[in-house]
User: Fold these one by one.
Assistant:
Number 1:
Amino acid sequence: MSLKYDLAPKRRRKPEINIIPLIDVLVVLIFFFLVSMQFRNLTLLQLTLPDIQTAGREQATEQIEIGITPAGDLFFNGQRVTEAELEARIQEVAARNRTQPVLILADEESLLRSVTFVMDTCRRAGLDRIRLQSR
C-alpha cells in the first residue's frame, strides 16, 4: 500500500479586481451630479435683480443686454463701457436695426439716474423695445 503525494506546488489563482461594479457606481455618481448641478452663465454680472410679482414669460430673441451695477458701472453685452461709449454703441445698433430689443439688467441697489440714463439714451436713438430684467 503506497500513498502517492503530489509534491508539486499548487497553482494559486491570480488575484483579480472586478471593476464592473466600480464602473457602475461611477456612472451613477456622474449622472447624479449632472442632474443636480446648476448650470449658470459665467459671463453674467453678479447682480441682485428686483423681484416683480406680475412679470410675464420671457421670449427668447436676440437682444442687446445693458447691465448696471450698484456703483453705476455700465456694461454693454458683458463689456464695461462709459456713458459716452454706451451712447455710441446704441447709435450704431439703432442705425442697423430700429426694432432691436434692449434688455436692461439693473441691480436693485443701482441708482435710478443710471437706469433712466440708459432708457433715455435708447429712446433718443429710436430703440423703443426696452425691457427690465427681473427675478
Number 2:
Amino acid sequence: MIHIEECTLIDAPIQRCFDLSRSVEVHPLSNVHSGEQALALGGVTSGLVGLSEEVTWRAKHFWCVAEPHE
C-alpha cells in the first residue's frame, strides 16, 4: 500500500485558513485548469459552506466534463 503525506506550513491564523478552505470562491482558484463552477442545484453557490450545506460542482477533468449526479 502506498502512503503519501503532505505538510504545508501557513503563516496565518487558523480561523482564516478554515474559512478559506470552505470558500466557494477560493476553491476554483486552485483548479483553474478544470474550469470548476458551483451549480445552482439547491446547494451553496457562493460564500462560505456551512454545517450541513452542500456544493455541487461542474468541472472538466481528464479531457471530459464531469456532470453532477441527480
Number 3:
Amino acid sequence: MRRARGFTMLELMMAMTIFSMLGMIVVMLMRQGMTIFVQGTRDSVLQDRMDTVLPQIQRRLEVLALPPSFAPPPPPPSEEERLAGAEWTSPPPVRDRLRSAIVVPRDVPEGPLKDRPCFYAAWVMDVSGDRSDAFLRRAGDRTGPDLRDYVPAERDRLDPDAAFKPSGGRMEICYVAIPEDPDFPALLTLYEGFRTPVGGEESLLDETNLDTIGEIQERCRPVARGILHFGIVWRRAFARDWKLTKGRVGEREPYVGSRWDSTRALDKAFALFKDVQSLGDPSDDIFPAWARLEITLIGPTTLGLGRGETSLAARVGDDDRSITVLHPMRLTGPGPDDRFLKVDGEWIGYRVSKVDAISGTIRGVERGLRNTRKASHSSAADVYVGLESRRDVRLLSRDYFAKGTKKP
C-alpha cells in the first residue's frame, strides 16, 4: 500500500493565513456594524431629547403676551399745575415684557465653574386656557391671606387644596442654563421656571432674582441635562437676516442679538436701551419678530454623559489661535466648513478645512464665542462637538411706537 501523506509546512502556513484573513474580515464587519448601531442609537436618543425640549419652548414662545395697550402714560404736571396742587405718581412698570441676558451666579465657589456666564431668558405668556389646569383653575376661587404665588416649588410641596392668587390669564416663564458638575464644566443643565401672578418683587422677569445657583434650583426645575449650548437669538422686524448686530442701533434700524429688554429701561447693554423712565411707558416698548432657538446636546456613551468626542493633545493658552487634539477625524465629519467645539466652558470656532488630519492641529480658531470667555485649558481636557439643532419661531410683534410714528 502507498504511504499516506500529510500537509506540508507551506500548506499549513497558507491555510492559517487564509483563515486569519477571513477572521479579520468578519471581525471588521461586526465592528463596523456595531459602530453603526451604536451611532444610530446615540443619534436617536439625541433626537428624542431635542424633540422633548425645543418644541416645548417653541409653544411657550408662540403664546408670548404683549401689553394690552401701547398708549403713553400721562405726562407729569407742569410747574404751574404743581403749584395749583396737581398730584402725579409715576406709572407702574409694564407687566407684560420680555427679558434676555447673561447672568453670572454669585454663589459659585472657587473652581472651574467660577464666573461662568449663563444664558437667561424670561417672558410673559398667555394662559387664557388656565381653567383646564387643575391648579390654575383654583387660582382666585378663594379669598384670604393664605393665597400663594403659583410656582413649581410651592405647588409640589403643598396639599391639593392649596389656594393660589388669580393668574389674570398671564404667566411668567423663564429658562436658564447653568453648569453644575465641576468635573465636567462644559456640560449645562437647562432649568425652567414659571410663576403667576405676573410682577412683584419675586418676579422671574428680574434676573437678579435668579443670580445664584441656589435660587435657580429652588425656583425652577431641570428639563434637560447633558447640554453644551442653549440660547435664543432675537430678531427685530427691521432685520432681514440673522447677522448679529454690534453696538447701538436707532429706532428704525435692524437688530439681531441674544440680549433683549422690551421696556428699554433695565439693561444698559441692550442695543436699543433708552432710559430708566421707560419702565412704565408702554408706548416705546419693542418686541422681537423672530426667535431662533439654539441647542447643542451630547449623546450617551458607555461612560455616561460626560466624555467628549476627543481631547486636547497639548495645553492651550488664553490667546492661542491653534489647538491640537488627539483624534482630529472626529471633528471632520460631513457638514459645513465652519463649526464649533467646546473645551471646558469656552466655545471655539474652527474650520474643517484648517484641520490637519496627521498632526491633529487646528489653526486659525476663534476664541470665546457664544457669550463665553477665553481661558487656558490643560492637556487631556475633553473636547466636545455634540449635535446642534436650530428652530426659527415667528412671534407676535409690536415693533413700532405710538409716539408720532407709523407702523413700518
